[in-house]
Predict the 3D structure of the following.
Amino acid sequence: MSLTEEDSHRLQQTSHPINERSNLTEQQLTKYEAWKNQAGMAQIKLEFIDFDHEVKLSMEHLSEADKKLIGETKDETKNPGEPKKKKFRGQNQKHLEINARSSSNINDHQLCYFVVRGGLEKCPYQSNCKHSHDLTNYLSRRSEDLRQGCYMFDVYGQCPYGILCRFSQSHIDPITGHNIINPGSNQKYLEAMNKYPGLLKHLLRRKKYDYNVADRLVKMANKQITKANIAKRNNPPEVEEKHHDDTDVGEK
């Protein structure tokens, strides 16, 4: 593989010392000392560090789409008044679009989690909540149901999705938007033992769950374990000594 003149010149520069301590400024020396003590930084000798190096993007290794994005960013610098456009995209490039299409998000007014699951009185933030509490407004703007009859409500007597359900005509009050519960159907099944409610899941994720009872029990158990270990250390079990005769040694 043949090297260009620029590459060969750069290789020649990196293979020979380019700095002398006496020619460096105080700012460059201070920067070098900071690099030396920084975790994860390669330990390179002072004379081989190029303080004037600029990172340049090689256009020949970019795709056509990325080259187009770079051209758009250059146009943005010329017209600073225009809104900024999207830069290079990552793995979650469509998460904003998916959230915008969410059934709980209409015209950028996302419904409150607590209002959807339990009603306005369940929201701990009340008037300070950043999400919408207006169920009637949501009802007037939401899209039509896919079909009549909700399987969750017909089988269990309650739909956990409430007003967000796409089959909610059978279990949503059309005026208030509250979720209807049928206690008769609720008695026909038993929930799994390892299932926990949504509010508990919310508290665990937010790290707001009260562990006072568990912490108190753990402290009590640790005290009992410590006492048992001290007692075992002070009163070691007696080991029976085995006496061997001379006739026991070797083969009989």
